[in-house]
Amino acid sequence: MNRFIHNKERIYLALLLIFSIPFYLVFLLSGVGLLVIFFLIALPLCAHFISMGYIRSNGVKLTPQQFPDIFQEVLDLSTKMEVKSVPDVYIIQSDGLLNAFATRFFGKNMIVLYSEMTDVYKHNGQEELRFILAHELAHLKRNHILKNLLILPGNWVPFLGQAYSRACEYTCDAMAAHYNGNLQAAKETLTLLAIGRGFYKDVNIHDYLLQSSRERNVFVWLSEKLSTHPTLPKRIHHLDNQFGSVSPEINFKTTTLFKFGIVGMCLAFLLVSAGAIFGLVKFIETVEASEEFSIENEGTTSLMTAASEGDIARVEELIESREDINATDENGNTAIVYATGYFIEEEFSETQAEIVQTLLDNGASLNSHSEEDIPILFMIYQNELEMVQTLIEYGANIQVEDSYGDIPLIAAVYANNAEIVQILLQAGADPKQTNQYGETALDIAEAEKAEEIISLLE
Questions:
Q1: Rounded to whole angstroms, how far apart are CA atoms 431 and 19?
Q2: Which helix H or strand E contains 109, and what residues bound it?
Q3: CA-CA distance, 367 to 148, in Å (whole number)?
Q4: Segment 136-147, tens digit of pLDDT
Q5: DSSP at 86
Q6: Secondary structure class of 301 (helix, strand, coil)
Q7: What is the DSSP letter of 202?
Q8: Which terminal residue of the chain has fewer beta carbons within 10 Å of its beta carbon, N or C?
């Protein structure tokens, strides 16, 4: 039967195996891979078995007593085509659909005939149904169902799985036409699938193919490339080619110019997509940069920026050039605020501590800041004991309140740092000071059950 096998079927199968086998090996050798394979294969198989279970429990099975004439056709064709195991054939109601398909159910071959297709048999369509049966038996003879399971991962490659499926359809059409021995019936059957039982006998097949062959644009081309079946006119034309009755004026081959056009469109699409992605990435980077350094639009000085970036050399250079060390941005923050924590995403570092010390040594004020950005609170929440001591020594207000009314002592309780609590108490912090919720440092310590801090406060 080699001459009936489409020349691209084996090529596409080999490519699909090249993609699929390494995938199976990698995932079988890893624990998570077994789970992935389960979801990719076992779950769809389970859904398939449920569907087949419905058909087997509701459909009518062909037997010597049930539609014996069609059953005999199946036996005769199975013998003629040397199908090793005669499949179970079921007829099921189809809501007007004209179709049939071959499948497997727990190792047993099956063919499902939709009732509309079977009805053709009762209206002088014996040859047409015989072609359909031979086509589905050809799928079983070629083991297409089992092969489709083996190459499942390869179907993720765009267009490749569909191309293999279309090649298989061409193969089965040719085998069915050969074993049925009626080319005209084969062509009429495919026409039947296009237009229905009431009209297919009246279709001028030559004009039908000619009309379809002239439909050439990218969307017509793409509709087929995304389909698992070739267009019906192309299937008829393939049979004409296979059995030597081709009309020279009908040509479905894609022209070189059209192929170049498709390639050009694909390249243009890729370039536009790449440009769009590149532009989006740059836009996101710009937005992030503007969010991170939106301080540039808030009256920020070069000294503030250098302090927030941890650039000690630049800070020293700007101080030497007599840049105003206590200049404020629109929020009222000075360079010392930027150095202690404002706009700093990483943990406080030795370099930042050095910058803070440099600013303080050169007269930086600790009492110019917003309610949200208070240097001593930054240091307390980062548990920077030495920096808290330094800030107190340089005159930081230990009773300063943030927008919640929390003073440094309350912040130290929240930070659960008994050492800083003791430093603040020794510096004169008022343990009776309340925040906007009326809570003292002791109230918060008791709520947090911080025994050591409670002892200090009491």
A1: 71
A2: strand 108-114
A3: 74
A4: 999 999 999 889
A5: P
A6: coil
A7: G
A8: C
pLDDT at 421 over 80: yes
Length of the chain: 458
**Which residue ranges make up each domain of the chain?**
2-253, 294-457
pTM score, two decimals? 0.60
Instruction: Evaluate whether 152 touches 96 at the Cβ level (below 8 Å).
Output: no
Which position has the token pair 């000071």? 433
Does domain 294-457 bear CATH number 2.60.40.10? no
For residue 297, the model assigns a pLDDT of 41
pLDDT at position 293, please?
Answer: 44
pLDDT of residue 32: 65
The structure tokens listed for 31 are 């624990």
List, in order, residues 6 or more apart from 446 with CB less than 8 Å away.
454
pLDDT band at 202 (very low <50, low <70, confident <90, very high): very high
**Closest by CA position to 325, among listed 298, 349, 303, 347:** 303
CA distance 36 to 28: 9
Distances (CA, A) of 45 to 109, 383, 419: 15, 58, 65
